[in-house]
Design brief:
Layout (H helix, E strand, L loop, with lengths): L5 H8 L6 H8 L2 H8 L17 H13 L5 H10 L1 H6 L11 H5 L2
Helix pairs in contact: 4-5
Length: 107
Amino acid sequence: MQSMRFSVFDVIRRTRKGNFLNQIDHLIDWKPIEAAINPHHSPKSDATGRPAYPGLLLFKMLPVGVWHGGLSDEAVEDRANANLYVMRFLNLFFEDEVPDHSVLSLI
């Protein structure tokens, strides 16, 4: 069993279960969406050799921008870095790197 990182516990502890993004995350079965994305987005690494961001993560960042009033790519990046609810929805934690706006501009 994988040990729980402290930040996972901390993000979960600090967010309400009834939050909109949490409700959406539990209502949608992401597996079929991920399966549809993967054949079109399956790089193992980016141009610099770092592990590529998962396609589902990049996909989920798009509705975050829409649901928060049509945010720019830069604003979505900022939300993903600063908002615990967005972080939890994207399955990101404090030590995870958030895709920057230039990555979002490519999708």
